[in-house]
Amino acid sequence: MTAILFISLIVCFGLGMPIAFSLGVSSVATLGFGSSLPLTLAAQRLFAGTDSFPLMAIPFFMLAGALMENGGISRRLVDFAHSLVGGIYGGLGMVAVLAAMFFAGISGAAAADTAAVGAVSIPAMIRKGYKKGFAAAIQAAGGSIGVIIPPSIPMIIYGVVGGVSIGKMFLGGFVPGALIGGGLMVASYFLCKKAGYKKDHASSLKEVWRYFADALWALLMPGIILGGILGGVFTPTEAAVVAAVYGLVVGLFIYKELSFKDLPKIFAKAAVSTSTVMLLIGTASIFGWILTAEQVPQSVAAYLTTLTDSPMVLYALVLVMLLVVGTFMETSASLIILTPVFLPVVKQFGIDPVHFGVVMVTALAIGMLTPPLGICLFISCNIARIQLTQIVGFVWPLLGIMIVILLLITFIPGLVMFVPNMF
């Protein structure tokens, strides 16, 4: 049964079938040819996998991100970031990263983060003489932080699948996201100085204050979301609803860059994004149920425990697997499939599930910068109008920084757990 499952999955991947359909087809093939169980089980698991209250946060965070993207939020965040760091060597690259970090506190999705900020920052860098490959690479790297800094859709999925506190996951993402963002900004400074890119003009304190005031309504959203969750005012799911309503009100009545005639298109865009993720969750639920029924997680756990009795060595092995998987598989699908496999193992070794979840999301986020999947790379290339081959050379140093920080947060758990333990 397991052999049919994985062979059919590999065949589907080889045919270029989308991941959601690959998981569904391989699961149905396994039930149909390798099991006496009725095929109706697939339909039951498809709906059961998406029938979860915490998962309702996904469509609302998608909608909040779409509203903010079209309501002038991303432009204001880029302007504010530019006023802070624009006057430094590599300042426009830093702006791309810093604005992406701000937007990450709104969207919860790396693709939305890259597209919203990149539409403003990449053309600005190119106009100032930055190479297109570098402009696209630094924005793609900054956009990947969108799933690490809260709110984060992958963290919601991990929390649901693993039965882990989503609020604590959100808190655990702060320090890793800040470290990666800081590392990328330092890299931008040295790479741009070496390349001879000119500095932009430095903003005065008065200009910084003006841009801050203009972006204030956007900057308040992450505080409202996390403050409400930590204060017990609302759950993460309810926080997503608050974020969507907040984005609607700000876009329509404060910034006034949204109109009611724009809403159908925005709602449709959010619905398409949500349906893609939810279909993936549903089909992955069938796939995961078969793995559990065949006791694959227990077999993996038994095998890994024969290799080592050291938590650090185990972590190193798991990290290598996650980095490889992230290169070929979408983050949400990877979490749904691998969380039931790895989480019981790390618990046996005394590793905190919240720490492991943040490490897992961060490792898979790195996969957004690596071909052949590399969704952030493709979005940035599309904005910059370049081929993938023109960006790869600029990505390697940025990938190196992200991997170093991944190792730091993995083997120094306090970097992740410091903030959650405060609450």
From TrEMBL:
Residues 6-415 form the TRAP C4-dicarboxylate transport system permease DctM subunit domain. It is a multi-pass membrane protein. NCBIfam families: dctM (TIGR00786). It holds the Pfam family DctM. GO terms for cellular component: plasma membrane. Its main location: membrane. It is found in: Cell inner membrane. This is C4-dicarboxylate ABC transporter permease. Keywords: Cell inner membrane, Cell membrane, Membrane, Transmembrane, Transmembrane helix. It comes from Dethiosulfatarculus sandiegensis. The chain crosses the membrane at residues 46-68, 80-103, 133-157, 169-191, 211-233, 239-255, 267-292, 312-343, 355-388, 394-419. GO terms for molecular function: transmembrane transporter activity.
